[in-house]
Amino acid sequence: MSTRTERTDHGGSLTTLLPVAAAGLRRRKTAFAGSYLALTLGVTLVATTGSLLHQTAGDDSPLGAPSLHKVLLFTAAMAAFVAVFVVAGTFAFAVAQRRQEIAMLRAVGATPRQIVWLITGEAAVVALAAALSGCLLALPGAPALAAWLVDRGAAPEGFTAHPAAGPMLLAAATGLAVALLGAVTAAVRAGRVRAAEALADAAVDRKVMTPLRWAAALTGLLTLFGAAGYYLAAPTMPPTPGDQAGDPQLASQWVLGADLAVITSIALLAPVLVPPLVRLLTAPLARATAAAPLLARQNALTAVRRTVSTATPAFLAIALTGTVVGSTAAFADAMTAQNRATTAARYVLRPGTQPLPADTLRRLTAGRPGLHATATTPTVVTGLGADTAAFDDHGEDSPASVPSAATVVDGDLATAWTLPAVQGNPADLHGATLALSTDQARGHGVHLGDHVNLRLADGTVTTLRLALVYRTQLGLDEILLSGDAATPHLPGARPTAVHLDAEPADRLGATLTDSRDPGPDPGAHYAWIATTTILGPALLYALIAIVNTMVMSTADRRRDFDVLRLAGSVRRQVLGTVALEAVLVVATAAVLALAVTALTQYGTTALINHRILAGQTTVPLHLPWPALAVAAAVCLALATTAALLPSRLALTRPAAAH
Fold first, then answer.
1. Among the ranges 181-185, 418-422, 518-522, which has the highest mean pLDDT value?
2. Residue 587: how many CB atoms within 10 A of its CB?
3. Interatomic CA distance for residues 297 and 201, integer angstroms
4. Cα distances (Å, whole numbers) of residue 610 to 237, 246, 606
5. Can you give the pLDDT at residue 590?
6. pLDDT bracket for residue 145 (50, 70, 90)
7. For residues 635 and 547, what is the distance between their CA atoms, to the nearest angstrom?
8. Three-class secondary structure of residue 60 per DSSP
9. Where does the record place the ABC3 transporter permease C-terminal domain (predicted)?
10. Do 256 and 204 touch, CB atoms closer than 8 A?
11. For the chain, what is the radius of gyration of the CA atoms?
12. What span, in angstroms and rounded, lies between the C-alpha atoms of 602 and 231?
């Protein structure tokens, strides 16, 4: 009998909660709108990049451009990384804002299970609508991003995005899961709190770190220590087979993954790091006589959840800018320095407004027997190292169909570059020979003197002897073909560079550069396009999230504003408090981001100098101060604007109206 009565009571209470849920949705439109916006943009971002990634396979990039597949893969990973943090934090913050409401429901008899079901239902409604909206926005978003890549030469002509159910369903499912997980976790925590305790602690965050968050934070701490340890030890560790950190062609990808691990660790530890950092930054304000600085300091210290929720997007924006831009600049500097160190030619002739003629080498050396010149022409080979029988299989999955970028060296290799030879002699690259980097030779299991099968650009299958194995270089293809073997199979091919030991009599309308002052690296253009593609969408989302969370937090503080005004504060003083608190939040995020950038840049520079350049040359440690300053300034402008505008609107109403 008692069980039946208990079930009836629970059912009646749950039915009673439905009008409460509807009223909550109406009353907290700003909070739910903020959660809806965060998830909508997150799903749009992931679905857009996923749709483009779905259209790529292998290395289908324009010649000389970075791998489109890899760029989009990292763009999708970066988008998902930022979206998960922002969406989970936004939904959890929206629940945390309702502590007083939840306490009142507990006081009138609502059970923890009913609280969880109530909040889960509200979150599910918002999340479903946002997931659908995000997928719809991705339909025009993916083609727009594809067109941007094509216009800048990072994607082949005709590349576009077609609607694909798989990436959109995956983005929607991920968004739903993250949103519900953030809401349910916060709801379970809130539902377990006793009503009296919840009402007493409504204004002060005493238990921000839950057991689940502590577990995640400890994992992040171990990851942080592991990354820091590797940054310190990696320079002196010998390279091993398959070591991505020591492979110049994979090192930038490995570094980006390590940077994201460090950023994740700091983000998970934010509730632990933010309060002492706020105390440190606001120590001079403790002696201030004005009310606004003191109130801003205490608000940031007592409302830790609000401070962390608003600081996290700013931290992500500044830290991602610092690490990605810093790492890109470090690798660009390393490539320039290594190219300068390995260039043996006195002059380099490159195409001007018109391509170089196909017979450039003959025309330059005609009548000048003492002039040593070496022409280099980019090409693509397929099936490097495949078995002879594999070339009869023309399927896309055949090993003989795997493309690889290569450079045809027509002339003396030593005239063009001074390469660090591991096996063999650069002078032996003539006749039916080729040279491979250490990574290519190790990957295909070939050694000096072995014969390697491959298909040339015109479809000819040939076998070339491995005459040189050189240490992998940042700005050089990992396959070098002898001009004797490859040039006859490149009809009409025009060289992209001619390396000379003396100034030519006829420049053929091309641009002649001195190797001592080579000018800008032509590959830097593609490097920054890749950086913009990877960082841009995620950074834009993080900046929008700053505005979103600031509006959500400010809209929830109308009662605080009423108390201040009833206590005698004028509108200017209240707005000053809000502005100072926004500045404090961004300053805290900027300090954490600077620490992350300093750690990752130190590790990246040490890795480049000791594992990639390895004595050829060195690059100094540089922090990307301009990028950090711009990111911090943008975050500060958005945060203060998003805090002041809704606060100003709230203060236009009489205090008694609240």
1. 418-422
2. 19
3. 19
4. 9, 9, 6
5. 95
6. confident
7. 9
8. coil
9. 74-191, 538-653
10. no
11. 30
12. 8
